[in-house]
Amino acid sequence: MRPRVTLVLAILAVLLGAGMLVPAAYVRLASDSSSSGDDPESVAAPPPVAPQPPTLTNTAVSVPFDGRYFSWALMDRETGTISGAENLTTTNSTESMIKVWIVADYLRRLGDKPLPAEQRKQAVTAIRDSNDTAAQSLYRAGGSRAVVERLIKMCKLTDTRIDPQGWAYTQMSPRDAVRMGDCIADGTAAGPKWTSFLMKEMASVRGTTAPEDQQLKQGGGRWGIIDGLPPSITAQGPVGIKNGWTMLWADLQWHLNCLAVTDKWSLAVMMRYPKDHGLDYGAQVCQSVTTQLVTPQPGAALKVPQPMAKP
After folding, report:
1. Is residue 130 a contact partner of residue 214, using CB atoms and an 8 Å limit?
2. DSSP conformational letter for 32
3. Within 13 A of 300's CA, how many CA atoms are on the CB side?
4. How far is the C-alpha of 101 from the C-alpha of 189, rounded, in Å?
5. Which of 254, 280, 285, 253 is nearest to 269 (CA)?
6. What does the DSSP assignment read for 201-243?
7. CA torsion angle for 204, 207, 209, 211 (degrees, to 10)?
8. pLDDT (tens digit, 9 = 90+) per residue, 183-233?
9. What is the C-alpha separation between 198 and 104, in angstroms, rounded?
10. Is this prediction's pTM over 0.90?
11. Percent of the chain with pLDDT over 90
């Protein structure tokens, strides 16, 4: 009987030993699992996502406009996409906004030749001070009507129409205005040698809407879109601008346009409104549209991704 008893005792010892090992192994596995970081409360939060630099993007714009005509367009210069008001293909007289093309057209045709002192002065004052006499001289040097014909062809404009009364009466849509801005910034308008010069002059436009800055043949034009841009955008690089504005006695309306272009976007705001509203009214409309297009809005909180719970 002893061999059989001995065998039974041996089997019981093996089974009891295995039973003791299983809980110990379970304890070790559980301990390893709890220290591996799988517990949701122990998962480290991911670092904050760096925000994209502020820019202008298409969004709903609300302006309590009191006038006959209001429209705007925005081009994303990285994609070529144009968005804006529903009537962005309708037109307004360009007024002085087209002066930037008149200067660009002269410079491109000049090519590698040196810019004569007189024409340099005309180019600078036509843009910085919106000088009519300087622009008219360069317009005639380019063949007058031919200058606008080249604009339509080279910048691929579809809504622009030439007016026999002259460059200021050229009919242009906001859609075509942002195309013109893009055409200037990408070097097509002024050519490789003169584009940086032209953009520098556009960034150097001076003068306000104050009566003392508004004269018969020129006027201060640093207002509108530029006033609607926060420092977080203007600090990214120069903003080229060229506004156009005239109170026409023929219809007792202000014909006012704002144009601005950077390496990322091109924006145009165009309008006609009653004489009694004054120049500041149009400048404020341009500013308001721009402010509403800024993305993200200044002061917007950064959203930090939260850690995901364990399934």
Report:
1. no
2. H
3. 14
4. 7
5. 285
6. HHHT----SSGGGB-SS-B----SGGGGS-HHHHTTS--EE--
7. -160
8. 999 999 999 999 999 999 999 999 999 999 999 999 999 999 999 999 999
9. 7
10. no
11. 78
